[in-house]
Amino acid sequence: MLLPGGGLGMNSMMDDMNLIQQAQRHHLVVRELGEEIDLEIGPGDDDPAFANTPLIGGPPREPSAEDHDESKNMVMVSQIPSDDQDMSKGQPVKRKKKVVKRWREEWADTYKWAYVDVKEGTARIFCSVCREYGRKHRRNPYGNEGSRNMQMSALEEHNNSLLHKEALRLQMASKDKIIADKPIYVKALMSKTAGSIVEAALKRDPHEVEFIQSLQEVVHALERVIAKNSHYVSIMERLLEPERMIVFRVPWVDDRGETNVNRGFRVQFNQALGPCRGGFRFHPSMTLSITKFLGFEQTLKNALSPYKIGGAAGGSDFDPKGKSDNEVMRFCQSFMNEMYRYLGIDKDLPSEEMGVGTREMGYLFGQYRRLAGHFQGSFTGPRIFWSGSSLRTEATGYGLVFFAQLLLADLNKDFKGLRCVVSGSGKIALHVLEKLIAYGALPITVSDSKGYLVDEEGFDYMKISFLREIKAQNRSLRDYSKTYARSKYYDEAKPWTERCDVAFPCATQNEIDQSDAISLVNSGCRILVEGSNMPCSPDAVDILRKANVLIAPAVAAGAGGVVAGEFELNHECNSVNWSPEDFESKLQEAMKQTYQRSLKAAADFGYQKESPEALVHGAIISAFLTLAQAMTDQGCV
Questions:
Q1: Helix (H, G, I), strand (E, B), or coil: what is residue 380?
Q2: Who's near 399: CB < 8 A, 6+ residues apart?
Q3: What is d(CA 615, CA 621) in angstroms, rounded to the nearest whole number?
Q4: What band does 573 get if pLDDT is binned at 50, 70 and 90?
Q5: How far is CA 624 from the centre of its chain?
Q6: 173-197 pLDDT, tens per residue?
Q7: DSSP state string for 521-549
Q8: Contact 360, 332 (CB under 8 A)
Q9: Which residues contact 162 (CB under 8 A, 6 or more apart)?
Q10: For the CA atoms of 410, 413, 419, 404, what is the dihedral angle to 10 degrees?
Q11: How far is the C-alpha of 133 from the C-alpha of 584, rounded, in Å?
Q12: Which of 182, 370, 529, 560 is 20 to 30 A from residue 24's alpha carbon, by CA?
């Protein structure tokens, strides 16, 4: 954020002194935002009118009666004889104040990339893109004695530098917001060694908020592992850099004949354990940072599973909602025109994720088969016209409930009669509802991007069928309450305030923030099962752990999709028509292995079974040690 200021000194020392004095006069309110400091300016003692002027991006203020009178007085002054005019010229403060007011909006727009931080005990103004500071970043861009051209030329010199241009290009490529809007939360780590890993990642990818958040959770879980063996530091540094990142243009033509362009991504994160497996996500929020975070999480999830496979993630910022079948087909074909050369049964096979279902996977596979010229293998997705396991789409949702059942069994409890809140209303969420009903639980909520639906009587199979019908027709969940009068839909709200015993966040990343975590604790939630990747913000995780809420991490609990995907690719599975009972039995066994591996790794490094961190840290430790062994055996590649 940019600080307004009055006159500046003639050298950098005077600049720093004036900056601190101005901060003291304007009653700065400071709150921590990770590694940055956000400053809010209270009313100033030296210029009351200054506090009423918007800082950055604000609309122009309507002139008040006082301003109107002041402007009239200035007009009257201009009509006074020259002697009085000479006296008025001797009041530089008045003139400078008018200059600043007139240029204030342009100043804020020009300096929207600035933020304040402390460097070696001194407050400095930094460029948010390249993180450099100097005279070109001063509070008053118009320089000493109101010299606008001096400071504008300094700003242009900085903006034309190669360092600034490269930083700006990378930021625009990732389509992230500026740092002041999306601060990076820097987690306190016990060891300097672990902190150095996070610091290096922050320097390399300062704007990839989601990826930085994910790796901080992983490094935090691995602190005891790294402290035991310093060799793992170099392994971790290599692991955090993806093997291959593919970013490409996806042009397509809509039904009106107009050309549209989206951006495609695929990050093949690590193949030390085998060929890559990971989802395609089609959503407007998709960026390189989110793709890397999903690929990193998938790498750990695959390493923890009983199968030896690598991790990847990909997708596009294309939004399939509201598009016709022909538009989706044309987009998928254009997407695959670039993507097919990186795919193959021994390279990388994608699966469905958010925004990618049966329709999208069919179009993608059809174009892949056409371009590749053979029918080698299959995509690990819903069975359309090629062979595959019978319950592929249900696997992730069912696996979440199986994992939660194992956790409850260790507490000498079961699902019968437990109130469960579920977020999301896609494939995973609806299959979670199905299996919860089968286990005798009472699931009461689902949600979408506009709000959430609560049915105090609980959902049953008929109601779930109706929810599927609503989603298939792209209708709002609000329509459910028109049929079932005792249910209620809440606009612009989340389900975490509802009384519950177990929570299943199955929507998207960071859907539970600090206030939501407090609501969950106050609602009686004792277990949280992560259906989506990284559903809790760092603040929310801290609150849940302090309240002793047991967390089943997505790395372990979400492994059902991985298991089913490997069943699909197994020749024995493809030659046998699995019954639902056989498939569920195999899935339960795989989830049990994952659960036990997580608990064993946690116990090996001193985490008690009852600790809210045991499963989270144990799952990450087990996955990392598997990856580290493979990477060590294969050398520096």
A1: strand
A2: 557, 558, 559, 560, 561, 563, 587, 590, 591
A3: 10
A4: very low
A5: 22
A6: 544 433 334 555 555 555 678 888 9
A7: HHTT--EEE--SSS-B-HHHHHHHHHTT-
A8: yes
A9: none
A10: 30
A11: 59
A12: 182
Residue 192: enclosing H or E segment and its boundaries?
Answer: helix 192-204
Distances in Å between the Cα of 316 and the Cα atoms of 322, 350, 367, 575 are 16, 13, 17, 34
- Please report, as a single letter, which amino acid is at residue 291: T
Cβ distance 304 to 623 under 8 Å? yes
**Using CA atoms, how far apart are residues 191 and 227, in angstroms rounded to an integer?**
8
DSSP per-residue string spanning 422-436: E---SHHHHHHHHHH
Among 368-382, 448-462, 527-541, the range scoring the smallest mean pLDDT is 368-382
Q: Which residues pair with 310 in a beta bridge?
A: 276
Q: How far apart are CA 432 and CA 399, in angstroms?
A: 9
pLDDT tens, residue by residue, 521-551: 999 999 999 999 999 999 999 999 999 999 9
259: left (phi over 0), alpha (psi -120 to 50) or beta: beta
Q: What is the Cα–Cα distance from 246 to 338, expressed in whole angstroms? A: 10
SS (H, E, C) 283-323: CCCCCHHHHHHHHHHHHHHHHHCCCCCEEEEEEECCCCCCC
Instruction: Report d(CA 37, CA 136) in Å as an integer.
Output: 20
pLDDT of residue 307: 85
Q: Which two tokens stand for residue 368?
A: 């892949």
Instruction: Count Cβ atoms within 10 A of the Cβ of residue 324 and give its class: 0-12 exposed, 13-18 middle, 19 or more buried.
Output: exposed
The residue count of the chain comes to 637
Whole-number Å distance between alpha carbons of 392 and 217: 30
Please give the structure tokens belonging to residue 159.
Answer: 């903006």
Q: How confident is the model at residue 109 (pLDDT cuts 50, 70, 90)?
A: very low
Which residue's entry shows tokens 């170099």? 234
Please state, as a whole number, how many other Cβ atoms lie within 10 Å of the Cβ of residue 88: 13
Q: Kindly report the average pLDDT of the chain as a whole number.
A: 77
Q: In terms of DSSP bridges, do strands 550-552 and 488-491 run parallel, antiparallel, or are they unpaired?
A: unpaired
> In angstroms, how far apart are the furthest CA atoms of the chain?
104
Give 360's Cβ-side CA count (13 Å radius): 26
Asked if 491 contacts 451 with a C-beta cutoff of 8 angstroms, the reply is yes
**DSSP letter, residue 62:** P
pLDDT value at residue 103: 35
**Which residue from 221, 189, 322 is spatially nearest to 605, judged by alpha carbons?**
221
With beta carbons less than 8 A apart as the criterion, state whether 421 and 504 touch.
yes
Picking from 494, 557, 481, 489, the residue whose alpha carbon sits closest to that of residue 520 is 494
- Amino acid identity of 265? F
Query: Which residues, 6 or more positions from 262, have their beta carbon under 8 angstroms from its beta carbon?
Result: 249, 250, 252, 316, 317, 318, 331
Residues facing 30 on adjacent strands? 39
CA angle 290, 309, 561 (to 5 degrees): 65
The reported pTM is 0.70
Q: Which of 184, 181, 206 is nearest to 1 (CA)?
A: 181
The answer to whether 183 and 189 are in contact (CB under 8 A) is no
pLDDT band, residue 36 (cuts 50/70/90): very low
pLDDT digits (tens, 9 = 90+) for 52-101: 433 333 344 444 444 445 444 444 434 444 444 444 444 444 444 433 33
Interacting residues of 510 by C-beta distance below 8 A, sequence separation 6+: 210, 213, 534, 535, 536, 537
Residue 90 CA, chain-centre distance (Å), reads 56
In sequence order, the β-bridge partners of residue 38 are: 31
